[in-house]
Amino acid sequence: MGTPAATVIGAGLAGCEAALLLAANGLAVRLHEQKPERRSPAHRLDGPAELVCSNSLKSTRVDTAQGLLKAELRRLGSRLLPLAEACALPAGTALAVDPARFSALVAAALDAESAIEVVRGEVTDLPDTAAAPAIVATGPLTGEALGGAIEAHVGRGRLSFYDAVAPTVTRESLDEARLFAASRYGKGDPDYLNAPLDTDEYRDFVAALAAAERFPARGFEAGVPFFESCLPVEVLAERGPETLAHGPMRPVGLTDPATGRWPHAVLQLRRENAAGTLWGLVGCQTQLRRGEQRRVFRMIPALARAEFARYGAVHRNFFLDWPAALTPFQESRRQRGLSFAGQMTGVEGYVESVASGLLAARHILDRHANREPELPPETTLLGALVRFLAGQEEGRGQPMNAAFGLLPPLPGRRRGKRERGAAHAERSLADLAAWLAAR
Ligand SMILES: Cc1cc2nc3c(=O)[nH]c(=O)nc-3n(C[C@H](O)[C@H](O)[C@H](O)COP(=O)(O)OP(=O)(O)OC[C@H]3O[C@@H](n4cnc5c(N)ncnc54)[C@H](O)[C@@H]3O)c2cc1C
């Protein structure tokens, strides 16, 4: 191969999706992969597109966010999704795969593309993009050498090495009768939603929190540093029954209009998107298992039926401060032609990483064809996820997965979760079809 028309670094989920899509559209691609010479602490296989942990790509039901994301990807010509479906294992409505077989199918697809040249070996510096665009998709465990080059490129403080995420819930699932909007001592606008707890409710909540089952850290994650200012909420609960009531759940200055008094404790919720459909649990970064997060946080009266758009997490995770570092098209603000894709942009999850690779490749194809790149409609999960990540406050970005709460609210009122999901899917797929037809 002579000069490639595009370079992709990292043959993971995002990188393979991007490389296969670029090649299918006639671009010669050089795909760099460090395995087997070097591998991250989570990678075991020698092949590409390795699923590093669970073998589930989650739901296929189009009335769920993960199912709709897959339907959108299919419409946009995803290359990896059909390969995953070709090696699906029986798993009810989830798409579970045999990881080794999936990786082998992706390897065969790369091999079959004469326009793709796979180059083995670690890349330690960012590519020059004067002659051809490049996508960096080296994942959440990007090593020191390339990680250092990326940090030098985007600037200190524009990169995170750990996430400490609090759960996010949807506004429509909260019990409005048990909430009040207020800021502490009435200062400024009443920007927070406050979920009050009386003494018994608080004590039960703290006891459940301290005893709840945590996600076991893998060996290489055992050293995740906890900063005193953002300790997991269950660690604070363990320190003593009143620690949270004097910390992130302190009630001072928050008068509950229902009682005219400060409650014993308050969980505050902070708005996470402009539409006000998503709210984060302030100070509740956590390492509890997901089922435990649902069980324990639903003990707070206002959250009794809370739907979780994102679960809390604390783990090693290398990701960019998207709003500061990248354009909405995943391109560096400092170097034309240099894009990033996959989990390192802040998307969270296997299918989201595939989606990010697909979008990065589409933007390169648009440029190549002298078409203005354009994001998918905001009513699609793809469009909404990118807008959410790109629109976060600089320096405060946290990873995000696909969730219906990212989408603009639906007109009218629908009761059931399934009914709402089906309506979101119908609107999204219709808008996506119209957008594709117009391009
Ligand atoms: C431990 C762990 C467990 C996870 N479990 C799940 C899960 O169960 N479900 C889920 O949905 N998501 C999970 N995720 C999150 C995320 O979905 C995966 O990390 C996903 O694989 C990210 O895709 P990616 O393409 O961004 O990166 P990866 O799939 O990690 O791909 C990056 C590729 O780049 C290569 N590479 C890295 N550095 C270089 C370099 N310098 N030069 C050349 N090649 C390089 C790597 O070898 C790898 O092949 C997990 C993440 C981690 C870290």
- Associated small molecules: flavin-adenine dinucleotide
Distance between the termini: 31 Å
- CATH class term of the largest domain: Alpha Beta
Task: Provide mean pLDDT, rounded.
Answer: 94
How does the major sheet shape up?
Answer: 6 strands, antiparallel
CATH second-level architecture of the largest domain? 3-Layer(bba) Sandwich
CATH superfamily heading of the largest domain = FAD/NAD(P)-binding domain
Which regions are unreliable across 5 or more consecutive residues at pLDDT < 50?
none
What's the gyration radius in Å?
Answer: 22 Å
Q: What is the domain total for the residues?
A: 2
DSSP strand count? 16
Helicity level, as a percent range? 25-40%
* Secondary structure category: alpha/beta
Please trace the helix and strand order, writing H or E for each element: EHEEHHEEHEEHEEEEHHEEHEEHEHHH
Shape: globular
At the fold tier of CATH, the topology name of the largest domain is FAD/NAD(P)-binding domain
Lateral strand order in the biggest sheet:
10-11-12-13-9-14
Beta content comes to 15-25%
